[in-house]
Amino acid sequence: MGFSTSKCDEFVEVLASKAPVPGGGGASALVAAVGTALGNMVGSLTVGKKKYADVEEEMYALKEKASALQADFLRLIDRDAEVFEPLSKAYGMPRETEEEKAEKARVMAIVLKDACSVPMEIMEKCCEAIDLIVEFAAKGSALAISDAGVGVAFCKAALLGASLNVFINTKSMADKEYAAELNAKADAMIEKYTKIADEVFAGVNGRLR
Fold it and tell me: 29: buried, middle or exposed (CB in 10 Å: 19+, 13-18, 0-12)?
């Protein structure tokens, strides 16, 4: 759909419109990409500096991982739009007869799982990004420490944002056992990584104040 290559003003304009996509999932992926890039920026401002020569190799490795995640998040902006379209169509399927009800239920089971898969992947990658920013904040250039703080705040916001896109879909699932399993995975990521993100942010804030 090409949302990941849209100009910033175009993306925001479409996001604000009544168009079904992009929505909260795509927006969360974009915020995560920006947050990860800010962590990566810390690495970019660290390598090549004599003061940080002892962590340069590690910074390059972290930057490589961050760059890969950035690309993943941008891909997921469009992927989220792709999986939502079949779901929006499925909600509009007729259910007058028993046959129509059965067919709608069959289709909904498939598209709801697909629609959950993308925000779940965004969440998982947000956790990876937060882990990277922990290292960027601890070992990167002190001159860029505020960027690590902003980056981790963005990744936390993206994690929470993506979770709501999981929960709105699991709520509609007929397979309650599968829905509960996804909810539990999402809850575990929130429980662990919002705390880590808050600790990094507090650490950065403490160093700046």
Answer: buried
Amino acid 130 reads: I
Q: Is the pLDDT of residue 144 over 70?
A: yes
CA distance 39 to 129: 8
- Torsion angle, CA of 107/109/114/116, rounded to 10 degrees? 140
Helix 8-16 vs helix 24-44: crossing angle, to nearest 10: 150
User: What pLDDT digit, counting tens, does each position of 62-105 carry?
Assistant: 999 999 999 999 999 999 999 988 898 898 999 999 999 999 99
**Alpha helices (H) along the chain:** 8-16, 24-44, 56-91, 98-139, 145-170, 176-208
Q: Which residue has the higher pLDDT, 154 or 95?
A: 154
Q: Roughly how many angstroms between the first and final C-alpha of the chain, as a whole number?
A: 44
What whole-number distance in Å separates Cα of residue 34 and Cα of residue 54?
27
